[in-house]
Amino acid sequence: MVLQKRFDYGFNGYHVPRASRSARGRGSVKKKVEDNSMCAFELLATVAGKLLQEKETSPIHAKALAGNDRTTIVKHIVKEEHQDEVKILKSEPFDQGSCNEGVFASGLRSQDHNQIHVSKEYSHVQNVVGLGHSSIIRKSDCLEKFGCGEDFLNGKRRNEFGRLRSTEGEGSPANEEPFGGKVENGTDGVPEAQKISSGVNGTVPDACSSGDPMKLDRKPCVLVSSDSSVEIPLHSNCISHASFPRCQDDIKIVNKDDDENSSGCTQPSTINVKAFRPAGRIGDRRIRKLLASKYWKVAPKLKDGELSNHDGDMNSFSCNRKTCYTRQRSQRNSPFKKRKLFDRSSVSTSDGVISSEGVFNTPEKGINGVTTGSASGASSVAGQQVSFQPRDSHVRLSIKSFRIPELFIEIPETETIGSLKRTVMEAVTAVLGGGLRVGVLLQGKKVRDDNKTLLQTGISHDNKLDSLGFTLEPNPTNAPPLICPEDPPFLLPCDAPQPLNRYPTPAALDPGASEASPDPPMASLANCVESDHDSVPSPIDMSTDKTTPDSRALVAIPAMSVEALAVVPYNRKSRRSELVQRRIRRPFSVAEVEALVQAVEKLGTGRWRDVKLRAFDNAKHRTYVDLKDKWKTLVHTARISPQQRRGEPVPQDLLDRVLSAHAYWSQQQAKQQVKQQPETCLLV
DNA sequence: ATTAGGG
DNA sequence: CCCTAAT
Question: How far, in Å, is the CA of A654 from the C1' of nucleotide C5?
Fold first, then answer.
């Protein structure tokens, strides 16, 4: 007997009739997945968080819950208690003052149905997001190699990412700063910092606006650009000051999206940029990992006991921030050493989970560069019932129902209903755990730019949005062919009508692929990212050891071959190669250009690695190749008429500097060659 | 791993 | 941004 059914995932017990599903879901199945995911990240994160929560208290475990399965989360979860199968999540108020909103959600689930009842309003999207992340991350963290207690998942830690530090001067000033005098003159006495600041603000007005809920804690001046932050040391205790006067003006771009990095700056005098980012890609990975492990551990036997492990994890989770913080920093000491950040394979993987990137972008602070990603094929559209309620500049919405992607279930006729339920649950759990990502639909259109703020996207309390929807779609990246990395023929490409899904094997969830993806929304729960995007080099290796083809055996399916019962999210990409996603486009902000120009003026055009190190050390998404390319385009841009230029306009003065620096260094290069020419001639 | 260029 | 060849 083969049951083929789509399940509506109701948050409020609200089921969306299949008939009412938008056709979009299906239609988009064929779309090439190249999505970068998330747009309106907050929304996605919120949704993801919900889903994950749900997962944690999946029916499988819910049996014993009997009404006690209530999950309440406040801000960041600090500790978790388990009562039999029931988990109670508690969190502590964020002490940063940035998030003052109170609790935002509570969930109640019924055991017999895959329904989650989510009520309560989200006082702030950020909070919601934070919630989702924390709950998710918490566990994942445990799984991570960091070990319990080492992780952080609150915004505080996140702050580290958005940090810039001054660079120390290297080499002799004369060589290092050919443009030093010139630049200074160019500033007309205006402090570099100020200059940059104006530049940033001019371009990205809202970036640092006071309205930003995520205000920085105590650091004074932070410059935030569209997708990166510029940090300028204010105090003089920077080493660079002494040895290299102008160094204090160095601009460094930090990628807020990178989760992995901890902080770049060790100097107290440095300003902290962006408040925080709860979970980064790392978080995503962790989440995924968590999900995966959980899934495999629990699903199969549906035993209790399993949770006990979590306890330990959870506790560890509540490590004190200090510790986590320290850890984080230490980890990122040698960014370049372990740089494989842009490895594509890794990127794709990350997508599977919600990326943290963007999670914290609130409308107020938003302003990120536009990213253009292609949408991933969505296999299903979740039921949408979103209502907005004006409240300050916050958007409140409640998702009445969510439909999960289509699942195929195959089960013997002789199986019991209970067995069927479990099977279905597992399938759902599996999908939710790692194979989904969240998409946002606005008026029928998929919102692909995860970096846009809700406001920019048109989702604001001012608008009576009646057409905001979320979708759960198979996460291409995430969905790795678990079992057969080589890509067995049987794994159908996403365009296949309705490929069968199979339970992800641990391997699949694994990260082999990892992430980098910019921001895969939920399934991968990224960065963000988005993560970062992209950025975390460390793949999740949890699956490595235990994962074997046999893992499938773990699937708790009644006496039948796993294969038979296997429910697999379809729409997975069969080939890893296909998983390769083009990195999301992240236009350089003026601040970044400024930093680049300054670095090039100082270092020249042939030392991109140094440029990267000097000015973009913390911007994981900017590789030296990117910088080189950007310089190339800048030179080109500077040469064409302003009318021909596109994108965010770059201040003419910057372009002028580009040209002069380019000319200068070209000349230098020529001289170098001239010098060598004679030598070679002599040699010959 | 970097650099340099073409696409 | 991607892809490659050459270092």
Answer: 32
